[in-house]
Each structure stands twice: as structure tokens, then as C-alpha cells.
Specification:
278 residues, mainly alpha, MetI-like fold, 68% helix, 0% strand, globular, membrane, transmembrane helix, ABC transporter
Length: 278
């Protein structure tokens, strides 16, 4: 009789916690279907009637730019950021984890120290550089830094993973005549796949949800991302179109949810397995 509660109690607590975590998503979905007069006045979760016109208005986009175009812009930036971080951060991590060169420990410590720098500290110098290069109001300031291993967090993450890989495989590759780059590409990179996928997942989510950096560099409406478009549902009287705004929020969340569900098993694998499994 005393064993049964020990079995169902953890599951009950997990189910309650799950409902609490999912409530904001349920509220967002329900609010996206509410009439305009119920969004801020009604406390009911479910609307009195479904207002599908909110999604019609949201699909029309903002400033003549459709949602599909906005999603394409966001996907381009997020995809470029993922590719840049995976390639550049893995190369830098391989150098720190496997290669011996002068002042490597000092450079690694300096790189880790940059994690303590707020993003706003480097934003102004970066903006001045890109402005002088004539790259402002383009996607280059949002993608190009990712190819320069500027994300110290992901470099540190991959370094820690690569240090746990067995060196015998790399030594065997050197005996067979492989150089450092060939060893990196053919041996280390496949073994580090869980860490790379973890980097890709977080990069995609953070870039997709980014608002501040995109607001700094993008001016033209046709170059807006979905996050910038969400802030544009304001008319001249400064009253927000809440229904379409929440409908566009639902549309913007869907790619992140799908991306996470597709790659979640790799994320768990990156936390739970060693380099010999994959």
C-alpha cells in the first residue's frame, strides 16, 4: 500500500509541471483566435467565437511584406548562423583541444573570459565596423560574425566534448598519413556530432528569437524577420492589432517547435553519450 504512491506521485508532479509549462502556449493559441474586444478584457482561456480573420490578416504580413517572405528572411539568417557556428566553432575547438601551439592556454582563457562581456559592450564597435564596410541594412552583420568563431560558449562546449574523445583514433589517422585538417574532418568531426547538433539547435533557436540585433542592423521592411514584423502591428493611433499579432506569434513559434522535436533526440544524445557512440 505504501509502494503505490511512490510510483504515481512523481508522474503526477511531472504532469502538473508540464501543464504549467504548456499553459502559455495554450493561452497564445487561444488568444490568436479571439476577437479584438476580448483579447484584453476577457479572462476566459477559450474565445466566445473563433476569429479566423486574425490569421488572414497575419498572413498578409506588414508593410506589404507577406509572412512567407518574412519566414524566408528569418530562415536565411538562422540557417547561415547555424552553418557558421558549426564550422567555425568546431575548427577553433579542435585547435584548442587537439593541437599544440604557443600560448594556447592563454588564448583559451582569454576566449572563455569573453563570455563575461555583455553583448551591448561589443555592439557599438561592431556596428561602426559594418557601417564603414557598407554592410548595414543587410544580412551580413547577422551572419558573417558566426563564421569567425565569435560565439565563445559554443567553442567551449565543443572543446569540452572533444577532450573526452580517445586520442588513439587520431594517432592512427596520423600514422596513415592524415594531416591535422583531414583528421579533423574525417575523424574528430563525426565523433563530435552530438556536440555539433547541440550547437546547431541552440544557435537556431537563439537566432530565430533574436530581436535586438536584427533591429539594429535591418531597416528596410522587405528585409525584416518575423520577430521584427511582430513589433510592427501598431497603427497611427498607437493601438496594437492584438489578434493578428498573436496569430503571427503562433506562426513564428511553429518552426522552432518543429525544429526542436526533430532534433531533440540528438540533443539528449549530446548530453548522455560519449564520443564513441552515435
Amino acid at each position: 500500500m505504501n509502494i503505490a504512491p511512490k510510483r504515481w506521485l512523481p508522474h503526477t508532479i511531472s504532469a502538473v509541471a508540464l501543464l504549467v509549462l504548456l499553459y502559455p502556449l495554450a493561452w497564445l493559441l487561444a488568444t490568436s483566435l479571439k476577437p479584438a474586444d476580448e483579447v484584453m478584457t476577457s479572462l476566459d482561456l477559450w474565445p466566445s467565437h473563433l476569429e479566423w480573420s486574425n490569421y488572414t490578416t497575419a498572413l498578409d504580413g506588414v508593410s506589404g511584406v507577406t509572412v512567407t517572405h518574412l519566414l524566408g528572411n528569418t530562415l536565411l539568417i538562422a540557417g547561415g548562423a547555424v552553418l557558421g557556428n558549426v564550422l567555425s566553432c568546431s575548427l577553433a575547438a579542435y585547435a584548442f583541444a587537439r593541437l599544440r601551439f604557443r600560448m594556447s592556454k592563454v588564448m583559451f582563457a582569454f576566449m572563455v573570459a569573453t563570455l563575461m562581456l555583455p553583448h551591448h559592450v561589443v555592439l557599438i564597435p561592431q556596428y561602426i565596423i559594418f557601417n564603414r564596410l557598407g554592410l548595414v541594412d543587410s544580412y551580413w552583420p547577422l551572419i558573417l560574425p558566426k563564421f569567425l568563431a565569435t560565439e565563445a560558449f559554443f567553442v567551449f562546449l565543443i572543446v569540452q566534448f572533444m577532450r573526452g574523445l580517445p586520442r588513439e583514433l587520431e594517432e592512427s589517422a596520423r600514422i596513415d598519413g592524415c594531416g591535422p585538417f583531414r583528421t579533423y574532418w574525417s575523424i574528430t568531426l563525426p565523433l563530435a556530432r552530438p556536440a555539433l547538433i547541440t550547437t546547431a539547435i541552440f544557435t537556431f533557436i537563439w537566432t530565430w528569437n533574436d530581436f535586438f540585433t536584427q533591429m539594429i542592423y535591418l531597416f528596410a521592411p522587405e528585409k525584416y524577420t518575423i520577430t521584427l514584423a511582430l513589433s510592427s502591428f501598431v497603427d497611427q493611433s498607437s493601438t496594437s492589432a492584438y489578434g493578428p499579432m498573436f496569430a503571427m506569434s503562433v506562426i513564428s513559434v511553429l518552426p522552432i517547435v518543429l525544429f526542436f522535436f526533430v532534433f531533440q533526440r540528438y540533443l539528449v544524445q549530446g548530453m548522455a553519450t560519449s564520443g564513441l557512440k552515435g
